[in-house]
Design brief:
This protein is an alpha/beta fold. The protein is built from 7 helices and 7 strands. The strands form 2 sheets. Strands 3, 4, 5, 6 and 7 form a 5-stranded parallel beta sheet that branches. Helix 2 packs across helix 7 and helix 3 packs antiparallel against helix 4.
Length: 217
């Protein structure tokens, strides 16, 4: 067996500058479309989930407006945990986060508790329908650039006691989330864990959110 190490492909950023890492490229140069008329200067966020989760997401998004420092790196891992520059008009993204209470879809706790009490394939499918309908409602407003959905941790990816006849319903249900024009971020992390692992989660999710919105070629 012969192994060959291929060079990392370069990505293009603002001003035609290039870098192999989207995080460092955005921090050093900015998004590729930053100087175009279509470049987003505001990211309007739509939210879907139970009340407690929505409160946690709002707090997290508020933190994402500011810089989040990377954790100290071990020798040889200098580029593993870069700072997150934050979403603000003076930062690397040249854009700010915008929230609007009319773009929030709160899901009833009682309904979600019924789904999570026995996470079978049918309950996963019903829960996916509930979230998909809420996301569709936000998408149809034409005002969201991204929709963030907070899924209860108890509603796992793998249903319990699912027979062979039900196996196809789970991936099909999950696919319903993505039939929208806007990017959809599906959070699997409970709000309490967002707070416990604050810096690490802020950096990773912040970068994930940023890369759904900005052009890197």
């Amino acid at each position: 067996m012969k192994a060959e190490l291929l060079p990392e492909p370069e990505l293009e950023f603002r001003g035609g500058n290039r870098h192999i890492d989207p995080r460092f490229g955005i921090m050093e140069f900015g998004p590729a479309d930053a100087d175009t008329p279509a470049a987003p200067t505001q990211i309007t966020v739509g939210l879907v989930g139970p009340r407690q989760a929505l409160d946690g997401i709002r707090r997290w998004l508020d933190r994402c407006r500011s810089e989040v420092k990377g954790k100290p790196a071990k020798p040889g891992q200098d580029n593993m945990f870069p700072d997150f520059p934050g979403f603000n008009d003076a930062g690397a993204f040249c854009s700010e986060l915008v929230f609007d209470d009319s773009l929030v879809r709160e899901l009833p706790d009682q309904t979600l508790r019924r789904f999570t009490a026995s996470p079978s394939a049918s309950s996963v499918s019903e829960a996916a329908d509930l979230y998909a309908d809420a996301a569709r409602s936000l998408s149809e407003t034409g005002r969201c650039r991204v929709i963030i959905c907070a899924r209860p941790d108890e509603l796992g990816d793998t249903p319990v006691d699912s027979g062979p006849a039900e196996e196809e319903s789970v991936p099909q249900a999950r696919a319903r989330w993505y039939h929208h024009c806007q990017p959809i971020c599906l959070l699997h992390v409970a709000p309490s864990r967002l707070l416990e692992r604050r810096a690490a989660v802020d950096r990773r999710l912040g970068w994930a959110l940023g890369q759904t919105q900005f052009s890197v070629t």
